[in-house]
Every structure is written in structure tokens, then in C-alpha cells.
């Protein structure tokens, strides 16, 4: 088993203090994956008063930090979900390809992120054996959503539900009947073959830009995202 290095810090990640729900503990945690010699920073959001529901793995979009989804992470944690937001991109990583055969060129990046998720789940199990990391909820924005779809395709038995915040490149899995919700922005279009014709809940959000699915988005958009995600999870559970 790879050696794990844990660094705990008490942090407040949300830039808008008025949006901070009560009774949510937030921590920064640094994992070390020895076989890959890779640091995996994560932000953890967990309720201090409610029993933990399934683990939620949040996957950030490219150029957006893992801590920039606090509006959604806090809302989920307040409802009892144990939320872990992974920082996939590190400062020394190669930039995400944007030209040529994007799908093929980005595969190694998505595979790296899948390995980050697997290592994080293993570390969480070692930290707290009461956490159910065998079947988790995946949420991903943009490139993070592509990584979530690759994970769900490769490890469907470990996924309860997937929520895509406007992911554009990796095809949604259809063979394993995983419940999937996707929220779509008005200023982007998914590549051909990404969105299936049936079996997925697709919500088109008017006046919502691709970047709006993180803390940078307007309050009304963030409110709608929270309401839609909660409705989906309540109905899917």
C-alpha cells in the first residue's frame, strides 16, 4: 500500500462569507500518491451535526481551483453529504491540449484524474472506515466532468450517480444504467456523441455561461444549480 501523508488545515474556502452554512467543517488535506510521486490536494466539507450520506467527489474545471465550488460543496455538506473536492491540476503539469484531436490528446489527463480519484477514495477509507467509498456520487465541471465520465465508464460499480456541469468531450456512459444529470450552459456545445439521446436528465440553463458553474457565477445561477442538484439526488436516492 502506498504511503499517505496527511496535512490538516482548518480553512474557510468560500469567498462570500454570507453564503457559509452553519455546522459545516472545512479542511484542506494533502495526499501523497507514492507510486506516482504525486501530491493530491483536496478540500473536504462535512456536516458536524448530520449523519454522513454518500461521499461526493467534486472535480473542478480547467483553470478553476478545487476550492471554487464552495457554494455547492457547502450546500451538499449541510444536507449530510461528505464532500471531497480534488485539485487535479498542479502548477508543474503540462497545459491541457486545445488543438488537434482534443479527445485523444486529453485522454492522459483524464486518466491521471481517474487515478487521483481512486487514490483519494483509498485514502478516505484509511482515514475513516465508516465512509462508504465503494459507491460514490461524482460531480464534475467541464474537464472535471469529462474525468468523472471516464471514471464512471471504467468503474461503474463504484458510482451511484454522476452530475455533469457542462462537460463537453467525454461520452456519457449508457451501458450500466447509472443515473446522470447534466446542466448545460448557453455558450457551449458538447462534441458529437457526448450526450446520449435518452437515459440522461438534461437541463438547459438559460443565461448561464460555461464558467458560471463555480463560485465565480452569479448568485441566481448558483441558487438554481443547488436546487437542481438537490432535486436530482433526492429523487435518485
Q: Main attributes?
A:
single chain; 237 residues; alpha/beta; Rossmann fold; 9-stranded mixed beta sheet; 4 helices; disordered N terminus
Task: Describe this structure as you would to a colleague.
Strands 1-2-3-5-4-6-7-8-9 form a nine-stranded mixed beta sheet, sandwiched between helices. It is globular. It has one domain (about 10-235): Rossmann fold (3-Layer(aba) Sandwich), CATH 3.40.50. It starts with 7 loop residues before the first strand and ends with a helix. β2 (about 25-35) and β3 form a beta hairpin. With about 240 residues, the chain is of the alpha/beta class. The protein is about 25% helix and about 25% strand. It has helices at about 70-80, 100-125, 145-155, 220-235; strands at about 10, 25-35, 40-45, 55-60, 80-85, 135-140, 160-165, 180-185, 200-205.
